[in-house]
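thought: user wants a sequence for this fold. calling inverse folding tool.
action: design(structure=
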């Protein structure tokens, strides 16, 4: 996962939303960052704000968009969760 040093307000001006979908309380966004020519998958629970972001190879973007958890699992260790937006579920 990459760390973007650009403030969120500016980043939104530099980021293009390629696709968006909501399933239940989960929102999935596919984003393109033209400045670095990077594609990012963002997954958030709309009720809790918990989620993750992962950089995606452009040729895998559609797969990641439709199967975000499977894609992230394949790339274990390549994404980060924001501790302020992450919940630990005790199973």
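)
observation: tool returned 91 residues.
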């Amino acid at each position: 996962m990459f760390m973007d040093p650009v403030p969120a307000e500016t980043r939104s001006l530099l980021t293009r939303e390629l696709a968006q979908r909501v399933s239940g309380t989960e929102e999935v966004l596919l984003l393109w960052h033209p400045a670095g020519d990077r594609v990012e998958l963002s997954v958030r629970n709309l009720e809790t704000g918990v989620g993750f972001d992962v950089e995606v190879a452009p040729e895998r973007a559609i797969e990641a968009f439709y199967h975000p958890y499977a894609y992230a699992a394949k790339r274990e260790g390549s994404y980060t969760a924001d501790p302020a937006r992450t919940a630990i579920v005790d199973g």
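thought: summarizing for user.
answer: Here is the designed sequence. The domain at 8-77 is CATH 3.30.67 (Viral Envelope Glycoprotein; domain 2).
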